[in-house]
């Protein structure tokens, strides 16, 4: 018996042999396109997989490929009744996804690069299978977006919401409490709604689960939207109740008992309870019969709009090389831009400030801003004769890319995992971005952040990102600098933080010129 005969006797071989010839060719081309995507953008796929595997926030994504296979199987009998075709307008979508990936590499934004590679995989389906087949597979294709590990950006907002819900419930339960940002003080202790308590992991997983149930169990779009709203609101509200419960138990049983209870309950048990509650509420509203077809091939084949779109076809033999050419152009552009670095001095030092002297750095609570990947980092404390004290953190980067982002997530005045949390955003004293932050004690700080890149001087992280992206697009070599001026506040015997920062700014002169002198090493 020959090897081809053996292959056809295997389940997969029989399944392939049962496919219409056009589908065999189209799926072979799609497999080649996806393989090329994974090989060419291996670093992005590897980074995503490590997040799926290592981060509890994204462990649920490991199930997404299996869910995609199941969703496709529900539609497959109808899908194969549609003839696939190569479709050249899909190349525009593919080029747009590649451009998004390029911008992400230039901005050092992994979310954009990872979204870009997933969008390219989706656009490859559009190019190689055509609009009719993609309409039949629309939900599975869209569901691929959940492969992107996104959601950490919601943590600060969720911390604030959780803290406010907790305060409202503490008031209802007659527990006196005071809140500053995400820090809550009660007679029983001092509590922080930390990043791990934001509830982001369950919100993200619940959104993915909610989208799946909304598609499979509902036919009405009104009910789908209502179910998604419930899937978003329920974990947020439940997390606020959980945080309140921890504080409430601490008031009556002590902090150690409350922490132990929270550690045991807060996990997949908590998620399972929330998910079961959502399903219990929605169960009676399911309106899709178990034997309903997920798609109607006859209707799609007869759809006038899809017929007009299908007229823009191209030869299948040209589609795959076109995809490869676009991917190579953008990856080559990225490699060229990433090889550029602006020259920086061998060493830098703080410029002199009239009337101020550098003193030992002895903060009341440890504070060290994060400047990952910077070529030079300075951290020091300055004091004048009037007793004003200012801490200065300065970082100089030869370039901006992944792992070296001046304004990246968790960078700067509120370092990720540094024990400090955002409290409020007061008006800036100069042209920077001001934050009032707090750590256990409580100890408060006022910090103002400035960015400098070429002619740009700003406190806006968004403006910095846009300037960095433009530099990379135009292949310009420019340094980027970050300056953080900060002072501890409410310290007995010391001037207020705002007064100290104003005194330093008045003595130093224009901040952009001061940053330029530091970058020049003089």
Helix-strand blueprint:
Blueprint: H1 3-9, H2 11-18, H3 21-40, H4 42-54, H5 64-79, E1 86-87, H6 89-107, H7 110-136, H8 138-143, H9 155-172, E2 178-180, E3 183-186, E4 189-192, H10 200-217, H11 221-253, H12 255-265, H13 268-282, H14 297-301, H15 304-310, E5 313-314, H16 316-338, E6 356-359, E7 376-384, E8 389-397, E9 421-424, E10 433-439, E11 443-453, E12 456-458, H17 461-473, E13 480-489, H18 497-508, H19 511-519
Antiparallel strand pairs: 1-5, 2-3, 3-4, 6-7, 7-8, 8-13, 9-10, 10-11, 11-12, 11-13
What does this structure look like?
- With 522 residues, this protein is α+β, with helices and mostly antiparallel strands.
- Helices cover 54% and strands 14% of the residues.
- It has 19 helices and 13 strands.
- It has helices at residues 3-9, 11-18, 21-40, 42-54, 64-79, 89-107, 110-136, 138-143, 155-172, 200-217, 221-253, 255-265, 268-282, 297-301, 304-310, 316-338, 461-473, 497-508, 511-519; strands spanning 86-87, 178-180, 183-186, 189-192, 313-314, 356-359, 376-384, 389-397, 421-424, 433-439, 443-453, 456-458, 480-489.
- β11 (443-453) and β12 (456-458) form a beta hairpin.
- α3 runs parallel beside α16 (316-338), α9 packs across α11 and α11 runs antiparallel to α12 (255-265).
- The longest helix is centred in the middle third of the chain and has 33 residues, at 221-253.
- The N and C termini lie far apart (80 Å).
- The model is unreliable at 1-8 (pLDDT under 50).
- Pfam families: DUF3485, Exosortase_EpsH.
């Amino acid at each position: 018996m020959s090897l081809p005969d053996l292959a056809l006797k295997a389940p997969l071989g029989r399944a392939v042999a049962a496919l219409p010839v056009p589908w065999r060719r189209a799926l072979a081309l799609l497999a080649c396109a996806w393989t090329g995507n994974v090989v060419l953008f291996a670093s992005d796929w590897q980074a995503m997989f490590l997040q799926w595997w290592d981060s509890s926030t994204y462990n649920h994504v490991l199930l997404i490929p299996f869910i995609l296979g199941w969703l496709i199987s529900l539609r497959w009998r109808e899908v194969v009744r549609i003839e696939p075709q190569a479709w050249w307008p899909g190349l525009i979508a593919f080029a747009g996804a590649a451009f998004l990936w390029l911008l992400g590499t230039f901005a050092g934004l992994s979310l954009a690069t990872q979204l870009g590679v997933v969008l390219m995989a989706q656009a490859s389906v559009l190019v190689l299978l055509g609009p009719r087949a993609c309409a039949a597979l629309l939900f599975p294709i869209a569901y691929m977006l959940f492969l992107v590990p996104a959601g950490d950006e919601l943590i600060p907002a969720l911390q604030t919401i959780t803290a406010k819900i907790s305060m409202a419930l503490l008031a209802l339960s007659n527990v006196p409490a005071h809140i500053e940002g995400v820090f809550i003080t009660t007679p029983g202790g001092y509590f922080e709604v930390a990043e791990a308590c934001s509830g982001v992991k369950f919100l993200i997983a619940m959104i993915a689960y909610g989208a799946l149930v909304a598609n499979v169990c509902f036919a009405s779009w009104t009910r789908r939207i209502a179910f998604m709203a419930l899937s978003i609101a329920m974990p947020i509200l439940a997390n606020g109740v959980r945080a309140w419960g921890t504080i409430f138990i601490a008031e009556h049983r002590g902090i150690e008992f409350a922490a132990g209870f929270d550690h045991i309950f807060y996990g997949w048990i908590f998620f399972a309870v929330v998910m079961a509650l959502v399903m219990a509420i929605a169960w009676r509203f399911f309106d899709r019969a178990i034997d309903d077809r997920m798609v109607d091939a006859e209707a799609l084949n007869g759809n006038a709009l899809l017929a007009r779109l299908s007229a823009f076809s191209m030869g299948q033999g040209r589609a795959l090389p076109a995809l490869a050419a676009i991917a190579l152009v953008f990856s080559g552009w990225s490699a060229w831009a990433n090889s550029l670095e602006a020259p920086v001095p061998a060493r830098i030092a703080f410029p002199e400030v009239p009337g101020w002297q550098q003193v030992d750095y002895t903060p009341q609570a440890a504070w060290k801003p994060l400047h990952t990947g910077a070529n030079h980092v300075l951290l020091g404390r300055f004091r004048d004769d009037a007793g004003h004290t200012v801490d200065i953190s300065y970082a100089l980067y030869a370039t901006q890319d992944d792992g070296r982002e001046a304004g990246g997530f968790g960078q700067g005045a509120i370092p990720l995992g540094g024990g400090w949390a955002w409290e409020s955003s007061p008006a800036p004293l100069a042209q920077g971005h001001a934050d009032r932050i707090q750590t256990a004690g409580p100890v408060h700080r006022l910090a103002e952040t400035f960015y400098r890149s070429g002619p740009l001087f700003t406190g806006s992280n968004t403006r910095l990102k846009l300037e960095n992206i433009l530099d990379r697009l135009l292949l310009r070599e420019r340094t980027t600098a970050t300056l953080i001026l900060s002072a501890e506040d409410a310290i007995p015997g010391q001037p207020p933080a705002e007064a100290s920062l104003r005194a330093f700014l008045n003595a130093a002169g224009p901040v952009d010129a001061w940053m330029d002198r530091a970058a020049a090493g003089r």
